[in-house]
Amino acid sequence: AAPLFPDRAITIAVTGAAGQIAYSLLPLLASGSVFGSRQRVALQLLDLPVTESVLQGVTLELEDGAYPLLELPVKYTSVSEEAFANADIVVLLGSFPRKPGMERKDLLAKNGAIFREQGLVLNRVAKQETRVLVVGNPANTNALTLSQFCTAIPKVNITALARLDHNRLRSLVARRLSCAVSDVHDVAIWGNHSSTQYPDVSFAYTSGVPVGKMRAALGGESQLQSEIIPTIQKRGAEVLALRKLSSAMSAARAIGDHLRDWMLGTASENELVSMVVASDGSYGIEKGLMFSFPVHCYRGGRYKIESSLSIDSFSRKYLEITQNELISERDEAMRVVSKMC
Ligand code: LMR
């Protein structure tokens, strides 16, 4: 694809830049595998002061990569204003991780404070065109909190990551059907990036399995319910249990895919990808809720929720469950942050 900004670098701010996901993501951004082999890239890395030496080490490694597209020197800081200033894209990896024994409420409170603050900073220093991608969990609700406090950036420019789940499902379908991943189209993730998400194959197809036949090809509704859906819902936890660390390589890859499609458009115009975006009321999902939908992406950072799919009773049940969870997360987060004002 032609570079988005032929005459200048695309400026990308990354928070949590000393962390695991960043360590896999930064080389993707610097090498041109996200925004193309002709788009110069400027990185503005942010992390907490306690990680300063790690962040500095990562910066040295980026320099040592001698990436032809990467602007030097690479900026790193622990001051959000400096990281976010002039950014075209802000990728928020940093969040307060869930610790053993921590209640969901406590997690929402900690992250409510972080994403309120980041929204306020973005409000002061970001450009209106800035595109924001929230990755740190609970990602949907963190994105919602941020957007409440960041009125300078239109809500359509604030998204969260569902592409990791989307890629997991696409790959699982390919493995089950013994076909290439590239042959699997239009899987969809609905709702929360959590164990209530609904991984949906109703509209998926391959060269051998036409639209409408995918459930049957995968063993029917009972197989979906007992095996395929829970596998995707729990995949993050499975990786965490095995690696003793959250998914990082696959998360970075998903972030690259999300950003590429969002900014440059999907390779084929009809392709559906999954993104957490503010609901426009489609499918009866409460307007404004940050909810993963199947979307179409168009060059220039635009997308449209695909609003004409028909949802049967099997799917509807799952949509309700994940919507209810998101509403309760939102209510709890809003209760907490409203006390901070
Ligand atoms: C994942 O889906 O792998 C992660 O979001 C899990 C986590 O809680 O870090």
From TrEMBL:
Residues 163-333 form the Lactate/malate dehydrogenase C-terminal domain. Keywords: NAD, Oxidoreductase. Pfam families: Ldh_1_C, Ldh_1_N. This is malate dehydrogenase. Substrate binds at residues 98, 104, 137, 168. NCBIfam families: MalateDH-SF1, PRK05442.1. Belongs to the LDH/MDH superfamily. MDH type 2 family.
